[in-house]
Design goal:
This protein is elongated. The longest helix has 19 residues. Strand 5, helix 6 and strand 6 form a beta-alpha-beta unit. It folds into two domains: 198 residues, 3-Layer(aba) Sandwich (Rossmann fold); 69 residues, Helicase, Ruva Protein, domain 3 (Orthogonal Bundle), CATH 1.10.8.100. The relative contact order is 0.10. The strands form two sheets. Strands 4-3-2-5-6-9-7 form a seven-stranded mixed β-sheet, with helices on both faces. A two-stranded antiparallel sheet has the order 1-8. By secondary structure, it is an alpha/beta fold. The chain is 40% helix and 17% strand. Bound molecules: S-adenosylmethionine. The site of S-adenosylmethionine (SAM) has 24 residues, from strand 1 and strand 3.
């Protein structure tokens, strides 16, 4: 593997000399600081044995480092023009698989199945518009993922690492915390991108838990309880729980000791798990005709 690569600045410059106009709807803000690119890759601890999936390689700011470290890199780019430019610049690396398509249309486990049963690392400077659906996929494919390092909008990073009781704490905070250890690594200013985005970004590392941090009988029900608690976040929990399961609030409060006059946004993951287990018991109890 050679390490002599075309800097993405050259690709960007040649794209800009042609009639390429970055698309706002595709979240095309290209990283132009290679020291940031290196810090992202380092955070993912990529080795020769780690298959890597990159979402949105763009002009290759991260890809050009990834191909020198990993023995298999799959890069999914929705923009056919960029995919073509990348293919031209890096096509000589036969361990790089550039897929021109929408990552949301692909089954990530199938896509990465070509590298065998071991987990893959996901690296991305994520286009802002698809952050939510990508997080859903991180949960769905968690069993195949060994590490995720993503750059997201600063505000999204704040939500994913928020403490209970804060404004930024939401359903996605608690749900991701059940599946992943989420670390905020460093902030990246808007001036590190072309074109410059309106807001700063942050780099996060998400490491799947070997075992969930809380024991719960039914993870699907935990998900439902968390979502219900935040659906009307200004209302008391007994309202949310009774809406999720009519008549359950009294039972839940009695069996968990949690005061359901509290708002959902004040509960930590342990308390959500306790509610989910009690709700499961409530349903069984009623199901048995009592
Ligand atoms: N990785 C490059 C960098 O760091 O400079 C580009 C990052 S840019 C923020 C996001 C990239 O994702 C763009 O190249 C864009 O075309 C691509 N993209 C947007 N939506 C996508 C999707 N649904 N599937 C795959 N790629 C997508």
């Amino acid at each position: 593997m050679s390490t002599v690569l075309d800097p993405p600045e050259d690709l960007l410059a040649s794209l800009r000399r042609s009639d390429f106009r970055p698309s706002r709807s595709k979240g095309q803000h290209f990283l132009i600081d290679s020291s940031i690119a290196r810090r992202i890759i380092e955070a993912a601890s990529v080795t020769k044995d780690t298959p890597v999936l990159e979402i949105g390689p763009g002009a290759g700011a991260l890809t050009r480092h990834l191909v020198t470290l990993a023995s298999g890199v799959t890069a999914v780019e929705i923009d056919s023009r960029l995919a073509g430019v990348l293919q031209e610049a890096y096509g000589r690396y036969d361990h790089l698989n550039i897929v021109n398509g929408d990552v949301l249309d692909l089954d990530l486990s199938d896509l990465m199945g070509r590298y065998g049963a071991s987990g893959f690392v996901l690296v991305a400077n994520l286009p802002y518009g698809i952050t939510g659906p990508v997080l859903d996929r991180l949960i769905a494919h968690r069993a195949r993922i060994s590490c995720v390092v993503i750059m997201v909008q600063h505000e999204v990073g704040g939500r994913l690492t928020a403490r209970p009781g804060t404004k930024a704490y939401g359903a996605i905070t608690a749900i991701m915390a059940y599946h992943y250890d989420v670390e905020s690594l460093f902030r990246v200013g808007g001036d590190r991108f072309v074109p410059r985005p309106a807001v700063d970004s942050v780099v996060l590392r998400l490491t799947p838990h070997e075992r969930p941090p809380v024991a719960v009988r039914d993870a699907g029900l935990l998900n439902d309880v968390i979502k219900a608690a935040f659906r009307h976040r200004r209302k008391m929990l007994h309202h949310a729980m009774n809406r999720l399961n009519p008549g359950s609030a009294g039972f839940l409060s009695e069996h968990t000791g949690i005061d359901l006059k509290r708002r959902g946004e004040t509960l930590d993951l342990n308390e959500f798990a306790a509610l989910a287990d009690a709700l499961s018991a409530f349903r069984n109890h009623r199901g048995h005709g009592c």
